[in-house]
Please model this.
Amino acid sequence: MPELPEVETIRRGLTDLIVGRRILNMDCAWRKSFQATDAEISQLVVGAQVISLDRRAKMLIIHLSGGNSLLIHLRMTGQLVWRGDDDARWAAGHPNDSMVGDLPDRTTRVTFTLTGGKLYFNDQRKFGRIRLTPTVAIDADPWVQSLGPEPLDATGYVDFVQRIRHHGGMSIKAALLDQQIVAGLGNIYADETLWLAQVHPETRVRSLTDSELQNIWSAAGQALNLGLKSGGSTLKNYVQADGTKGNYLDKFANAYGRVGQPCHRCGTEMIKLKVAGRGTYICPNCQRLV
DNA sequence: CACTTGACCTGTCCGC
DNA sequence: TGCGGACAGGTCAAGT
Model:
């Protein structure tokens, strides 16, 4: 679920909520979710203060005092939700459809107790991971070091072309999902990008001209910006840092999930394919295989 | 080497 | 209603 815009939305929300707070305790209900030893947790995490929050591609980075940082990857179903001690919205007897349910719940894998409240790492499918790494070594971390450029970085295009040209045999959809070629797109935004650029997802990279790649690159930026503007997407699992649900697909999806519905550009009925092993939505009129 | 598939997990939805 | 199978936003290891 969480692609770049969702992670960025969470980062912004969490920044206001937890910067300056101190970690008083950390509890791991599913040990695999947190890749660090008990000693590292008790010595480097507990007692540290939250300095700032950062993001790289789909990764959220929490910088701690003491020179360490938490790298958090939400994968498919991860959530980070802050519940302040004085936040009445979760009070019993006040269910609210626009928010997640009571916390913690059965999907809570890690609980951080901070001054003034708790930060819950929920993850239904247990794919998400949290790592601890020295702040100075983040760029060398295996999660970070081989990432490609981000579409929202205007200077990244040249790097993108260089990288993607090494994979002429790949379908453009597979290439957009490859984080080493371009970082931050997932299945939803890859489909939105190709719809905007009017490119068929099975098009081989080698058959795309430089100007078509340029077009795809800027379409990726547009798609991500649309997502950012609306606070991220929502299927089943996405919630913002304060527990509010996102709304991207309701309002802004042009491709993802729209099988059988009319194309927003030409009115043709949208179809669903399987490309690179993933459910893929296209307009068969606007996006033709050449 | 380049690229695709299966595994990791749990939940939901669909057809029988 | 119950049951099996397919599928779900990401990534890595293993396989072709």
Residues 75-77, 107, 123-127, 166-167, 169-170, 174, 236, 276-277 of chain A lie near DNA strand B (CB under 10 Å from a C1').
